[in-house]
């Protein structure tokens, strides 16, 4: 755990979050500023800064994807959803503990704004 990392602090229970699902290796909780009717963040318990670091830990990567799929099921996203990993400056990543955004619950429109 890195005590300066916001999501490690959520994992440690230091900062509250609305938990949707938890496994030994992952946590899924609601985004504080939802961009869709359902907007859940899935993080590995192990601190990895971004999806590139996560890819170097295949077990954790698989667990994050499995939890994302479970969240879609729990949230009833039977008509579809998106899984997004914002990465780096151009990707607009703001929190540097890798997280999958699972978004859905309504048609999400074009994949990228303005395209
Ligand atoms: P990023 O831009 O890094 O891909 O996404 C970070 C996400 O974390 C944003 O969607 C933002 O709303 C969410 N977020 C930031 N701070 C908090 C917080 O304290 N609690 C929760 N639940 N979400 C947060
Ligand atoms: Zn962290």
Question: What attributes does this structure have?
Answer:
binds guanosine-5'-monophosphate; five-stranded antiparallel beta sheet; alpha+beta; 28% helix; globular; binds zinc ion; 115 residues; 5 strands
Please, could you describe this protein's structure?
With 115 residues, the protein is of the alpha+beta class. 28% of the residues lie in helices and 22% in strands. The chain has helices spanning 6-11, 51-55, 58-74, 88-91; strands spanning 19-22, 26-30, 38-44, 81-84, 100-104. Strands 1-2-3-5-4 form a five-stranded antiparallel β-sheet, covered by helices on one side. A hairpin with a 3-residue loop joins strand 1 (19-22) and strand 2 (26-30). The chain is globular, with a radius of gyration of 14 Å. The model has no long low-confidence stretch (mean pLDDT 96). The protein binds guanosine-5'-monophosphate and zinc ion (ZN). Zinc ion is lined by residues 2, 5, 7-8, 47, 97.
């Amino acid at each position: 755990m890195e005590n300066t990392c916001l999501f490690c602090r959520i994992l440690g229970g230091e900062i509250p979050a609305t938990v949707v699902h938890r496994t030994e290796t992952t946590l899924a909780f609601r985004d504080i500023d939802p961009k869709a009717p359902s907007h859940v963040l899935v993080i590995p318990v192990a601190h990895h800064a971004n999806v590139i670091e996560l890819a170097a830990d295949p077990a954790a990567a698989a667990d994050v994807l499995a939890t994302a799929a479970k969240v879609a099921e729990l949230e009833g996203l039977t008509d579809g959803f998106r899984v997004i990993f914002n990465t780096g400056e151009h990707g607009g990543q703001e929190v540097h503990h890798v997280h999958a955004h699972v978004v859905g619950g309504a048609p999400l429109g074009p994949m990228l704004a303005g395209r």
